[in-house]
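User: We ran a pulldown and think these components assemble together. Before we commit to crystallization trials, I'd like a predicted model of the whole complex to look at. Sequences follow.
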Amino acid sequence: MIKIIVDMMGSDNGSAATKEGVRRFKKNHPDCELVLVGKLDELADMEGYEKIEANDTVGMCAGAMEVLRKKDASMVKAVKAAADPEMHADGVISAGGTGAFLSAATLILKKVPGVKRPCLVTAFPKLIDEGGYVTILDCGSSNENTPEELQQFAFMGSVYAQAVYGIEKPVVKLVANGTEDGKGSPVGKEAFALLKDDPKVNFQGNVEGNQLLTGAVDVAVCDGFTGNVLLKTTEGVAKMMGKEIKKAFTRNIFSKIGYLLSKKGFAEFTTKMNPKKTGGALLLGVNGVAVKAHGNSDGESFESALNVAYKLACNKVVEKLQEGFKE
Amino acid sequence: MIKIIVDMMGSDNGSAATKEGVRRFKKNHPDCELVLVGKLDELADMEGYEKIEANDTVGMCAGAMEVLRKKDASMVKAVKAAADPEMHADGVISAGGTGAFLSAATLILKKVPGVKRPCLVTAFPKLIDEGGYVTILDCGSSNENTPEELQQFAFMGSVYAQAVYGIEKPVVKLVANGTEDGKGSPVGKEAFALLKDDPKVNFQGNVEGNQLLTGAVDVAVCDGFTGNVLLKTTEGVAKMMGKEIKKAFTRNIFSKIGYLLSKKGFAEFTTKMNPKKTGGALLLGVNGVAVKAHGNSDGESFESALNVAYKLACNKVVEKLQEGFKE
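Assistant: Here's a predicted model for the assembly, 654 residues in total across the polymer chains.
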């Protein structure tokens, strides 16, 4: 049975959002055990769950120091429970601050032996008829990486894409400033040389930013700084375009009727682009499933994040990484 | 009078596109002198223009070596004419390969004294009601930069935004993985320290990728690798979303009617997002206006690129940079 520890206090929207997410998830996965961490009075209406009391929270911008200090914070207690061998937990999920969660997961769950640096993974919907997702990593857990770290990200991303999206041999590419072999950041070029001869990944060269959503790549590897810029830019452009679409439809009575006539197609499109469906990011390379739900999670997106954690646990992604790095 | 040298052969769409662009531009700017460089037989129907014969072209992926070798290429001859003191030209424009154009402009026009490295500039439309553009640089002329280079990009971008968009004190920010002062790539952090005390720019800290189009910033500074990824990603997401919009509208007869009813609003939106309107990129930091039109320019986008070159020349951007770097 899968067992996931849930930080109930991290979301900007309070425990109402996490509680709704837990209920929605549990309805579809009655077999999965969830342990809820938070203020017991706020969780009083969650019956039938194992609970761990935690009366403090870490700030959204907290770093490693605050994480170490705040021993009674729900996020810290949740990660500690996930690391506790007696709990037999598969992983932990939190909607708290990214920096704090990365620190807590790395410090408490500890890196998988052989992993140089854990990395943050996000998946973007491919905007093609066949659908699917492109896995992008590192999305900002570090802001500088070595070529060897990029090489490891490629492997971790492949294992993830296999496990979560069922892609047998995920196409791995390095994010670069051109598709030719000689392109890339200085670190990227060195990583290219390492990946070219790496039998553990299906490396197929460089990819440019405009190819990421076109299906040309399953796993896009970059340093954490680039990944963060890439992720935020994509989100920003998509959000602003969404606003413009709304504006175009609410322009006058005709455009409003136009919307009613074409809304089915737009609903499909909006569903595809909905960040709530991808459920946040996750940290790969630590000894346990570690999923970071969106800070502004509502019930739906917290449920998606729980789904990701569940899928990672069912597919034994952590065990596969532990094995892979043993070789 | 403004005089611009035009490489007529660089576009993927051949001289038909550049000729149309020249004619369109000339209609609105009869006072501006254009010198056309290319095969004389192809330009036979362009009467009343000074012409320079050039019978070769450089490849789209050519670098500095090919530029130095291909003495009869239209791009090389055009840049040489722009550098020739007897021509009294203000600048040069080409739709040829970016790498070749950067090399030719840097080698032949030469860097403005004091400039460490020229940079490629692109402007993106801000997706806000007030409109306007955000200037992004470096967009990929280098793939690694020093903090001092980033500091210079900030100044060059400010001069550009003042001259072309009439922004009195452009808000300059560094592209980073967070808005807090401590964020940024290692090079970015050092540039932050330099810019904080730089009286020549209105530096206001860091900006994240999701804020670029929201009006929070007029000049976004980053290293060339990051800038290239940022640019390509934005283009890619916008293009893919455009396709999805089209798909949603062509779904069935109702959605097609829906499109007819709402197309005015979408036309405004599409016009705003149209890369043809921004006219390509330009190289700042060399002794002359140097505009790189889109490789796949048609008449409209080549006209836009000519407009940018004209505006830069009229506003004496090169002279302002030369003065600014003298101090």
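Chain A touches chain B through 62 residues (CB under 8 Å). That may be worth checking against your pulldown data before setting up trials.

User: Thanks, that helps.
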